[in-house]
Design goal:
1278 residues, alpha+beta, 7-stranded antiparallel sheet, 6-stranded antiparallel sheet, 29 helices, 55 strands, 33% helix, disordered N terminus
Amino acid sequence: MKSPRRTTLCLMFIVIYSSKAALNWNYESTIHPLSLHEHEPAGEEALRQKRAVATKSPTAEEYTVNIEISFENASFLDPIKAYLNSLSFPIHGNNTDQITDILSINVTTVCRPAGNEIWCSCETGYGWPRERCLHNLICQERDVFLPGHHCSCLKELPPNGPFCLLQEDVTLNMRVRLNVGFQEDLMNTSSALYRSYKTDLETAFRKGYGILPGFKGVTVTGFKSGSVVVTYEVKTTPPSLELIHKANEQVVQSLNQTYKMDYNSFQAVTINESNFFVTPEIIFEGDTVSLVCEKEVLSSNVSWRYEEQQLEIQNSSRFSIYTALFNNMTSVSKLTIHNITPGDAGTPETDIDSSCSRYTLKADGTQCPSGSSGTTVIYTCEFISAYGARGSANIKVTFISVANLTITPDPISVSEGQNFSIKCISDVSNYDEVYWNTSAGIKIYQRFYTTRRYLDGAESVLTVKTSTREWNGTYHCIFRYKNSYSIATKDVIVHPLPLKLNIMVDPLEATVSCSGSHHIKCCIEEDGDYKVTFHTGSSSLPAAKEVNKKQVCYKHNFNASSVSWCSKTVDVCCHFTNAANNSVWSPSMKLNLVPGENITCQDPVIGVGEPGKVIQKLCRFSNVPSSPESPIGGTITYKCVGSQWEEKRNDCISAPINSLLQMAKALIKSPSQDEMLPTYLKDLSISIDKAEHEISSSPGSLGAIINILDLLSTVPTQVNSEMMTHVLSTVNVILGKPVLNTWKVLQQQWTNQSSQLLHSVERFSQALQSGDSPPLSFSQTNVQMSSMVIKSSHPETYQQRFVFPYFDLWGNVVIDKSYLENLQSDSSIVTMAFPTLQAILAQDIQENNFAESLVMTTTVSHNTTMPFRISMTFKNNSPSGGETKCVFWNFRLANNTGGWDSSGCYVEEGDGDNVTCICDHLTSFSILMSPDSPDPSSLLGILLDIISYVGVGFSILSLAACLVVEAVVWKSVTKNRTSYMRHTCIVNIAASLLVANTWFIVVAAIQDNRYILCKTACVAATFFIHFFYLSVFFWMLTLGLMLFYRLVFILHETSRSTQKAIAFCLGYGCPLAISVITLGATQPREVYTRKNVCWLNWEDTKALLAFAIPALIIVVVNITITIVVITKILRPSIGDKPCKQEKSSLFQISKSIGVLTPLLGLTWGFGLTTVFPGTNLVFHIIFAILNVFQGLFILLFGCLWDLKVQEALLNKFSLSRWSSQHSKSTSLGSSTPVFSMSSPISRRFNNLFGKTGTYNVSTPEATSSSLENSSSASSLLN
């Protein structure tokens, strides 16, 4: 914008140059010396383009050049204009090298100050372009713009040009009236009258309108009646009204007066065309908008209305209307809308190419504080249009700090089997994603690395626990935030070295004659640069290399004579060392050195052995046919019988399946396991289908397939429908009826294989993602599967039905939609049904549960913590009878080997053939029948639990009370050997039973509450329960033997220390020996305890007999002792036998049995009957009642019923009035023989058993002995 005091003059040169020379115009020299303002950039660019064109063409051309000259003093304007008008054209160029002529110079635009504004007006013959008149403010006082034509004055000079342009020609349609009579010949263009009128009128018109600037000509177009109306057209540049009036006067003066032309009748001819213009073209809210309507009608009565509302717009603060008539022929009305709003708009149009403002931000690091990235700054963009609109918008700009990564600096060089880790540290804590990939672009799965975020940074650690050759290469640590990536690389070198599990040794175990030798070897699948030696103890033995196709073996002939002495076991290992000086040890080979005369079995492949010797060999090194190209796997067990080796167990794995097993082991260690898994599952399904017959006769191959599925199910990746189909195809084969017998053989050694298979299939189903494909449905003979994907927040009820006609089994699964609404969107619900799996799964041995029904597994891809309920209906083919239970397979039971569990499930209804179960969780479900024992949730089961817990708890309190009483009265009741030994036995019986019951109730409480007891703790608990229960029995045996000894061998005498030593050896030594032997014989094979109970195993090893047999023997011995003791007591004395004794004989025997039986453990006779299946429930109840109250029996009949104990307690806690009586009893006891009729103790004893009279002895020594013995017997029975 120019200063208000500055005047601008714009010139136009018309230049012609000759073809003899190229024009090389120096623009600076064309500016007038008085110019104080250089040309605008747009004009300079236009001139530069013209100059470039001029230098290329030799042909003379005409150019128009606009020049702007600015003056500080307006008085310079008129002299300059006068000077330019005085020039004579053309002006020839002075430079001989450039032939340039200036044809004319015309002033086009003059800008003058007008108050505080600048008005730029056009000189005669020039006008502002119509676009400028529409978009810029015009000088209202001097110029009324005719839309469609040029305007002559603008406020301010347009900043980007153009200047006033030479006006274009227009055609004015005019008419005038002649006050003469109309003649018909004027309608005939060929008549003389018509030609005469036309000639005269056109001559006058040319003279009159010739004064118009840019006049081109005039033509009479016709005559009309009404006097004579002449119509004509004038071609000229747009004239002003003043010039038109002058031209009309000249026409009247130039025309012959006989035509009587009426001056007042000049007017423009209306053709009723309308033009509408809107300024600006692009309207913003808040702009001042001008709407101009031009119509060729002679009327100033113009109204503006809203088209939709039909409301007339009136002048107001926001609306102003101006209407004018031009040239006596056009009506122009202008509506100005101030501060336009969206409500003023009609149908909106969007121009995405409208002008934009750009601002470039430069990040210099100050926008991101240290340790952070993603700092957001809000910038405000404010818009002000040229027509008054204002607006603003906030733009959020996030500055990202590119992370600087620091990676583990040390070189990483490891060998196969070793671990390594790469730490990648970022100095920025903000990131969207962190991941690792290889140089080949393979993305490392997230299970191999961890990422942590700190206040001032972050770190990611890639950890490989077991490296293989596939990990050799370059790794990229990538931190991504938005679209910014930071990458650090690290090279990893993995040197070849066989893994310990891949080193095959032969033999695993062998017998070697002390004077002989044995070939030993270690083999691997791939050759390498290894140094191999054999080691035994501190000795190193050389190895000879032998290559047999892909198999490479290192051998040595071990000479037994090199060992210093015979009859020992030697462990030999191979030691592999690679080029990186890393090493690995092979599994050990056990060589048993024996004298040669003990060897009976000999075989060149199996080796030698003693009778009964059992050894294992790798199948590939045995007599089983094998090929080096396709080696078999697994082991085979031999036993030396007589002089021949017999095959005891064959766990060999066929070559194809062994190859698949090795590939699976490698796959789970591979960085590209996700990409390899789909192809592997397909190959597995095809191979298993081909090897179905072979699997049905090979437990080793079956076990290998289960291990393969278990390994693959741990790969944390999504499973698609095709992959799941291959898995189920494999499962269908190994669950077929032909393979069921193979399962039985397999589970004799590996009891958790069926649980392992079920767990693997569940993991696969939880990883199933159908994506956009339809839900997967699979149906085969031995497995069916159906699924559903939750796609919305209002899913349908989940209902699936499975029918197996071949097995006559079916089942339904229903989950109400109310429970599905809690699941995440796109969650998958998968249900699988198996008709043969229940027969394979380990049964609940404790309750001998069985049923013939489906096992149905239902899983959800996303874990849910909300309440859940699933309803299932089973077809039950089991015989009627017994109680039905709804159970699920709990993988945590039986030391994590799995077992049936009824927690959270109950029977809703059952009619014999159909059973409906309701459960509050998801997993694998089935039904069981319990014909022998009650359901734990039943009334009888709850009653037994109450009896057991309350009884055992009360028994523990009774035993503790017994020990307290014995401690209080110990000195008073142990004054002779017999009493001392009796109370010693009672104390140890109570203590042993107390410890055993404590162990029992703690373990039972843990297992009943479904807490997992670790295997070691379960073994320890079983050992101590076994030991202390046996101690109870053996101390009972000690008590019985001591009683038998005192009553039968009256005259035999032993010291107290000797009796005590024998008692402790018998009471604790024997139980300890039995418990240790039982543990040592069964625990190495992990069959010491039961699967789901911490107690001695019965199913596999019959270890329970180590408790039952000693208990049974002791019960029989104690019963015999009881009979002998009662017979001895009832035997008449040397004197006469009173007849009254016959009347009370039965009472005396019953009372003795009632006293001795609890003490001597006869209640365990009922317990032994519960060991065997099919036991009546009455025995369970009787055993529970008698056994749990045994502590109370010992307290009452073994402790408190003893008169000496009673008297000691009375003396200990009696009042003063009992003191004299106690003194008398003491005095009497000291002066009277203990067993005489006058003794209080003797009287009570004899009264109890109906005895009268005395025992007569011949000598004092005998009397003393007899008294002691009789007194002890009395104490035992009281």
